[in-house]
Amino acid sequence: LMAQEELDGALVGGASLDPKSFASIVNFTA
Description:
- The protein is an all-alpha fold.
- The chain has one domain.
- The chain is built from 1 helix and no strands.
- It has one helix at 19-26.
- It is elongated.
- It starts with 18 loop residues before the first helix and ends with a helix.
- The mean pLDDT is 75.
């Protein structure tokens, strides 16, 4: 999903409450 050119960001929602899930989103590289 994050590799799509039209996508500029994401709403992390509940993942921001779980440090491991949030870290995987923050560290994602397309």
